[in-house]
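HUMAN: Please help interpret these tokens:
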Amino acid sequence: MVVLGLILLIIGLVLPQSILTTIGIILIVVGLVLNLVPIGGSRRRVF
């Protein structure tokens, strides 16, 4: 999800479409939160 966010962020910066940049930033933030916060009581972290 973080990789997809980075790709959309780069495409959004190259092309004059701000919606791609916004979606890219949201995907990066959500991907990092899901990676760093243990969900469902699991103690392992996936990096």
Q: What stands out?
A: The helical segments are 2-14, 18-36. The chain has one domain: 2-36.
